[in-house]
Amino acid sequence: MARVWVLALCVSTVIADTTTTIPDYFQTSFGPYAGGYETGRVPFLAQTNPALSAQPTYVPNGPLVTDIPVPDKPEGASIFSHMGNLSPYRPNADGFGVDEYALPYGSNITQIHMVHRHGSRYPTSKPGVVDRINGFIENGTVFTGNLSFLNSWTYQLGENELTVRGRQELFDSGILHYYNYGQLYNPGSNLIARTTTMVRMLQSAESFLYGFFGSKWTQNVTLEAIIDSTGFNNSMGGDQMCTNAGNGRGQTSGSATDQWKSIYLQDATLRFQNQSSGRSANWTVDDLNDVQSLCAYETSAFGYSPFCLLFTWDEWLGFEYTLDIQFYGNNGFASPVGRAIGLGFVEELIARLIQHLPDPPDDSIAFNTTLDDNNSTFPLNQTIYFDFSHDTEIFSMMTALGLSKFGKYLSPTELATNRSLVVSNITPFGGYFLFEVIKAPYPVLDQRPRNSSDSPYDTSGNSTSYVHMIMNQRTIPLGESIPDCGARDDGWCELQTFINFQQQNVDKANYNASCFGDYSTPGYGNITDGAIPNS
Ligand SMILES: *[C@@H]1O[C@H](CO)[C@@H](O)[C@H](O)[C@H]1NC(C)=O
Ligand SMILES: *[C@@H]1O[C@H](CO)[C@@H](O)[C@H](O)[C@H]1NC(C)=O
Ligand SMILES: *[C@@H]1O[C@H](CO)[C@@H](O)[C@H](O)[C@H]1NC(C)=O
Ligand SMILES: *[C@@H]1O[C@H](CO)[C@@H](O)[C@H](O)[C@H]1NC(C)=O
Ligand SMILES: *[C@@H]1O[C@H](CO)[C@@H](O)[C@H](O)[C@H]1NC(C)=O
Ligand SMILES: *[C@@H]1O[C@H](CO)[C@@H](O)[C@H](O)[C@H]1NC(C)=O
Ligand SMILES: *[C@@H]1O[C@H](CO)[C@@H](O)[C@H](O)[C@H]1NC(C)=O
Ligand SMILES: *[C@@H]1O[C@H](CO)[C@@H](O)[C@H](O)[C@H]1NC(C)=O
Ligand SMILES: *[C@@H]1O[C@H](CO)[C@@H](O)[C@H](O)[C@H]1NC(C)=O
Ligand SMILES: *[C@@H]1O[C@H](CO)[C@@H](O)[C@H](O)[C@H]1NC(C)=O
Ligand SMILES: *[C@@H]1O[C@H](CO)[C@@H](O)[C@H](O)[C@H]1NC(C)=O
Ligand SMILES: *[C@@H]1O[C@H](CO)[C@@H](O)[C@H](O)[C@H]1NC(C)=O
Question: pTM of the predicted model, to two decimals?
Answer without folding.
Answer: 0.93
